Amino acid sequence: MRCVVFDLDGTLADTSLDLLAAANAALPRAVLGPQDALTAFHGGRAMLRLGFTRLGMDWSEADVDAGYPVLLEAYRAGIATHTRLYPGAMEAVEALKAGGFAVSVCTNKPEALAELLLAELGVRGAFGALVGADTFPVRKPDPVPYRAAVERAGGVVGRSMLVGDTETDAKTGVAAGVPVVLVTFGPEGAGVSRFRPAALLDRFEDLPGLAGRLLT
Fold it and tell me: Annotated catalytic, 169?
């Protein structure tokens, strides 16, 4: 079966405001804002590094390690406060399923948090599988999580594709030998074209047709 795998943060949903709020809770004072959405989509540790640097602190990776559990707990407590699915995301998912595609999620968010977020948004049941950052000892761009996300949803890796928003997703596609589509409605916009994806996606409405062409 053909399969479309989705990244979560910055692809299916704009999670940036809740991620930044959690990072601010783990910093001595709030210094991160909406302008830092791109950093938010690169993960909790990236946000903490930016925050410490912006505060002018003499920080080390030990400080990042110490702040990370605090960030995770704050994020868990407010995981869907401001997070919203991108327009048309679930309509595209349902159209893909109606067209005979399997659909799943492969994210570098910890699995339990990804499960919680999709449940809070009311869409977990739409996806045949979910693989997170800690499901395996490795994470994207290693191909192992991606392959599992395809196979657990009933798909075939050789007939699958990834929809994402970052260089990590582009590298995952290369590692797994599958086409990658990068969305242009994230903080980088069309700048993601420099990662040389198989295609760019400006709106979810176009995804079912694009998937049909890429996975003939």
Answer: no
